Amino acid sequence: MEQIFFYILGAITLVSAFLVVSLRRPIQNVLFMILMMVGLAGLFILLHAEFVAMVQLVVYAGAIMVLFLFVIMLLNLDQLKMPPPEGSHVRWWAGAVIAFAVMGLIWLAFKMYLAPEVPPVEQAGASNTVVVGKALFTTYLLPFEIASVLLLAAIVGSVLLARSRS
Amino acid sequence: MRIVVGDKSPIIDELQSIFPDAIVAVQPVRDNVPTVWVRQGSLKDVLGYLKSGISKPFRTLFDLTAIDERLRVSRNGQPESDFTVVYHLISYERNEDVRVKVALKGDAPSIPSIVKLWPCANWYEREVWDMFGVRFEGHPNLRRILLPQRWKGHPLRKEHPARATEMGPFELPDYRAEEEDSRLQFHPEEWGLPDYGPDTRYIFLNMGPQHPGTHGPFRIVLALDGEVIVDAIPDIGFHHRGAEKMAERQTWHTFIPYTDRIDYLGGVMNNLPYCMAVERLAGIEVPDKAKVIRVMMAEFFRIASHLVFYGTYAQDVGAMSPVFFMFNDRERVFSIVEAICGGRMHPSWFRIGGVAQDLPKGWEKLVGQFVKYFPARLDEFLKLVMHNRLLKARTKGIGVYTLDEAIEWGVTGPGLRACGLEWDFRKDRPYSGYDQFEFDVPTGQNGDAYDRGAVRAEELRQSLRIIEQCLKMMPDGPYMADHPLATPPPKHLTMHHIETLIHHFLNVTWGPVIPAGEATAIVEATKGNNAYYLISDGNTNSYRTRIRTPSFAHLQMIPLIIRGSAIADLVALLGSIDFVMADVDR
Amino acid sequence: MDLAIPVILVIVKVLLVIFVVLTFVAYTTLLERRVLGWFQVRLGPNRVGPWGLLQPLADGAKLLLKEEVTVTAANRWIYLVAPLIVVTCALTPFAVIPFAKDLYLDRIFDQAASKFVLNTGVISDLNVGILFVFAVSSLGTYGVLLGGWSSNNKYSLLGGVRAGAQMISYELALSLSVIGVLLLAGTLSLTQIVEAQDSVWKWYVFRQPLGFILFLIAGSAEIGRTPFDLVECENELVAGYQTEYSAMKFGLFYLGEYAHLLFLSALMTTLYFGGWQGPFFPPIVWFLIKTFFFAFVFIWIRATYPRLRYDRVMAFGWKVLLPVGLFNVMVTAFVYTLWLQYRG
After folding, report:
1. What is the pLDDT of residues A9-67, one digit of tens each?
2. Residues 6 or more apart from A99 whose CB is under 8 A from it?
3. Which CATH number fits domain B10-137: 3.30.420.40, 3.40.50.2300, 3.30.460.80, 3.30.200.40?
4. Which long-range contacts (CB under 8 A, 24 or more apart) does C62-66 make?
5. What pTM was computed for the model?
6. Which domain holds residue C180?
7. For a Cys-Cys bond, which of A90, B305, C56, C227 suits C305, CB 3.0-4.6 Å?
8. Of B28, B65, B21, nearest in space to B517 by CA
9. Can you spell out the DSSP letters for C36-49?
10. For residue C23, what are the contacts with CB-CB under 8 A and spacing of at least 6?
11. Quick one: three-class SS letters along C243-292?
12. Helix, strand and coil percent figures for chain C, each rounded to 5
């Protein structure tokens, strides 16, 4: 049962990820990117990471991609003709090679440093929201706060940029 | 009060002493508005002097129109002219009018434009070009305004046919249809907008002629930066029915129903200036009872019209319920109107010399009930609409024009009073016996959309006061003048009096022959000042009927007010102006 | 076999709930029209069936039989998909709303029925229920946005953009206003939140009054009801993003809108008014009474208020609701911690 779902969701995610980079119309790219996010959220659920799945939907699919869509709608980018792919496939191949190399590296890293036998951390009675929350506010408090400050700086910066232009 | 009589007015003396060469003639008219004929070359000087040189200047261009004089017989020593352009100015400080006429010769006449002097002359001059083919030199955008751009001929010229049957069958072959389609393409430069170039960041939004927010077939082309209006071009004429041309075919009597449909919310209020102008031409004195009945019915229609305004005003800023409450009460007004006149929205009930019938038995009870019932409702409406904080947020400081702008652009009625000028024709130039009534003239201070609503809300109460006084003081006596030109003559006389019977027969079959002359009658109508400028050539129908409507001037002002505001503000502004397109396009 | 029966039963249950919800949605339109008529001294639809009760059926039949007008200049696929997204995202969140304690199936069938977790009054008691709600409804924005964009009409576009901006802004305020409840309940599961409110004074509306007001305001903005109905305010934008939609496609948008209204009322009931809890009547009845009361409140507001201007709505969301929401979270956390300390 779980395997069937995994394959369906994996296929959705992979196919839409491929379509994001291969289709030539911005609006289609964005739509498939959203679909990919939804697929990813499904995969997270299969991993019993409901909290991450929902956050994935709310933040990425629900908010960030809306902004992408906004830009495309308002600037009418859809009428923009994307340049056709270049004659030589050098770039394409280079991209593919780099992608595979990175994937290999990651796989190696997992293989070497993450023992596959260790089961996911289960804490009896606590939902994984609680676990994530506790981890964020105790073990990883400093990185969490640094990330917040970084985001705040980004917000201030973007507001400043938008202001000075107009 | 005006003391001017014909050619013996101080303003004419002053003009003659300053421009001894410019004044060609002084024309006596029936309505005692000083009327001077000015040489074309010195027109701008004279108008400029009247607008700013003179003490207590004439700052309002009340009307600008033209007359095709080529077939006119009784001109009584007026200067030679094929086409006459007429400028009607008003000074609120003096409480005086002046009419300036310019004679034009030939088949393709032209005259300098006065848009630089009065920006509101823009649409009036376009209308004269559209209707008479008089070219205005120096006009920024002299295009047809009421008729389609492709129209051939100028309809108010005497040679232009007045009926469809005289024009041959209508055809729309494919190539013409395609041509019409291509005309719908929007080119900003054709509309007097600057050329923003192909990479413009502005959106051009075509609001109307079919749009829920424009109160009828009114089109307004918006150049938008996001939701901010950069420029707005109003486009009118979709409701044009050629009322002025029809007036030249109808008899004086049979034109009355057409006037009802000018401001279709005003009902008999439209009959009033027309009948008054005809009565001035004919020299009919209306009996007291008829005057009071006219006042009462006119105020009922003011209430009906203001209720529609009140409801749609709230509707325009998004409140959906008030309009139903208002229409319910409007229904009560209409049931009274129906009991008295027989008709509801367009009773066509005033007659030359009086009104159509006497008041029915028991009218006091109906009116009395309404007078008792309505004040409590008005309080409720005030709470529901004018005291609502969201409505205040939507209308306060929105669509503001200053008093100076209002006067220059020919804004009249509640829109003018919302700027703080306490000017009401009923008070300042009482007609039809308004001087006998006690009522206040409500004013605002800020000239914004809220004040325009508040002024009208208070006017409802004042109208009710007037109706209450009509109820208490309704005089006895005839409802129709005993005058040979009164149409139709009093019924009881026609049965016993052969002379009156003959008059009745002639006036109804051929129409009354109104003596030659010119007269204007202005009333404080529901939406502003409505004026009929009638020219009789001593015939059974009018030689020229000019209908000056308030909404025409009000709509012209929209771009000035709305630039830099949001679309939502435009809707609030349109709601607060209170216009109907029939009143604009006639 | 062990797997197939519960799956089938779950599907049946889901279909049943969707059917019931859709029926209620249809009757919410009738409710709105009748109640508005009542507010506005007129009758409202009363011709089809007794008290107009068959009106929703007539409307549905009309929408199904009407001609589908597809704008030639529209972006066809997206134009077709947009209403589906709206309806899907409006109906899906009902999956986590607990509408009753149980379904009394164990009384009708034998105890075996309750073995399959089918007896609970909720389709799925997710332990991240409230997050699921926000996740799905944030996806609903796409339907509106894409519908407005793909119609290739300027009014639709403006309506779509307004809708998108408004929904994003108010979703934030909506989520913030709920956090107070989540803090007190200590769970994201809607079923547990309802169970925590087992007596009237434990209803979160009394412990989170500010949060409730914020929720009501942000909620009505989220579903685009007066005074925040800028998305489709007819005086300005004709019909906003729906302008170019006709027949059943329009019907789907309409359905989505009322489903959203009903859902928000149900959520409000669940979060702040003890959900299905209540004396004397069976839980489902209490749930319906409360839900329809809030639906009525939304209609009432619609009959009373004008609408705000777009920029003020946005300013209000960001400059008032958001800070007040944050303030509410801080105060709640502070007081709650103190209380925990005091209690030991």
Report:
1. 889 898 998 888 887 778 888 888 888 888 888 888 887 777 888 888 888 887 788 88
2. none
3. 3.30.460.80
4. C63/C247, C63/C248, C63/C250, C63/C251, C64/C247, C64/C248, C64/C251, C66/C246, C66/C247, C66/C248
5. 0.82
6. 57-343
7. C227
8. B28
9. HHHHTTS--S-SSS
10. none
11. CCCCHHHHHHHHHHHHHHHHHHHHHHHHHHCCCCCCCCCCHHHHHHHHHH
12. 75, 0, 25
In chain C, how long is the greatest CA-to-CA distance?
69
Per-position b or e across B110-139, b if 16+ CB within 10 A of its CB: ebbbbbebbbbbbbbbbbbbbbbbbbbeeb
Residue C10 falls inside a structural domain: no
Considering the domain boundaries, does residue C121 fall inside one? yes
- Give chain A's contact residues with C (Cβ, < 8 Å): 1, 27, 31, 34, 38, 41, 50-51, 53-55, 57-58, 61-63, 66, 69-70, 73-74, 78, 127, 129
Q: Which two tokens stand for residue C165?
A: 């901006």
CATH class of A1-81: mainly alpha
CA C145/CA C136 separation, integer angstroms = 15
Task: Return phi, psi of residue B27, to 5°.
Answer: -110, 125
Query: Across-strand partners of A105?
Result: none
- Tell me if C142 and A27 make a contact (CB, 8 A cut-off): no
Measured distance CA(C140)–CA(B160) in Å, rounded: 60
Cα C307 to Cα C301: distance, rounded to the nearest angstrom: 11
Given a contact cutoff of 8 angstroms between Cβ atoms, the answer to whether B150 and B183 are in contact is yes
pLDDT, residue A88, reads 64
Q: Which CATH superfamily is domain B243-585 in?
A: Cytochrome-c3 Hydrogenase, chain B (1.10.645.10)
Radius of gyration of chain B (CA): 24
Helix/strand/coil for A114: coil
Q: What is the pLDDT of residues C136-185, one digit of tens each?
A: 888 888 888 888 888 888 888 888 888 888 888 888 888 888 888 888 88
- Cβ-defined contact of C161 to A73 (cutoff 8 Å): yes
> Residue ranges of the alpha helices (H) in B474-539?
491-494, 498-509
Residue that is written with structure tokens 């001294």 in the block: C41
The pLDDT of residue A130: 77
Shortest CB distance from B391 goes to which of C40, C238, C306? C306
